[in-house]
Design a protein that fits this description.
The chain is an all-alpha fold. It has 4 helices and no strands. Helix 1 runs parallel beside helix 3, helix 1 runs antiparallel to helix 4 and helix 3 runs antiparallel to helix 4. The chain is elongated and about 70 Å long. The chain starts with 22 loop residues before the first helix and ends in a 15-residue tail after the last helix.
């Protein structure tokens, strides 16, 4: 008898691939030092991760044995839930958060210090990088709450996908 699917290693959540979802936060942290195209590229990497994870979860939901009518619904729920959760928790909210913290940091350093611009920019980048591990779990839990309170109430009575 094969092992349960829960014991399976998830490429998008249990390996180094997961870190691709943080590319845009790193891009935002470096915004003051790199061309805008580099920041947009980091969003492309993160968005590709989100799309790939959603497709993967849809394929896994489709592999579960069940009547065909329930299969289509399960696949749709898995793809939509994963895509919305990842788009909010991995791209939109953390990208905005790092962007605003870095912008505020650069502004405060510019008004409160006489440091050279290069030092202020590197300090801002360091602040942006340092907040990434601090914001991840609160954002994840907030997106769980948001989806549990809204979108997930609309799903038919199929097993709810695991988000994080």
């Amino acid at each position: 008898m094969p092992e349960p699917r829960a014991a399976e290693r998830d490429l998008y959540r249990d390996t180094w691939v997961r870190y691709l979802g943080y590319a845009n936060e790193v891009g935002e942290a470096f915004r003051s030092l790199v061309p805008a195209a580099v920041v947009w590229l980091s969003y492309g990497v993160s968005s590709s991760y989100v799309l790939a994870d959603a497709i993967d979860k849809g394929k896994k939901a489709g592999d579960v044995s069940s009547p065909e009518a329930g299969r289509r619904t399960r696949v749709t729920v898995a793809v939509v839930d994963t895509f919305v959760w990842q788009a909010l928790a991995s791209v939109a909210i953390p990208g905005f958060t790092v962007n605003r913290v870095c912008a505020a940091s650069l502004y405060v350093l510019g008004t409160a210090t006489r440091w050279p611009l290069a030092v202020r920019k590197w300090t801002t980048t360091a602040v942006g990088l340092l907040i990434i591990p601090v914001i991840v779990h609160p954002i994840d839990r907030s997106v769980d709450f948001l989806l549990d309170s809204s979108l997930r109430k609309l799903y038919p009575s199929v097993e709810k996908p695991s988000s994080s």
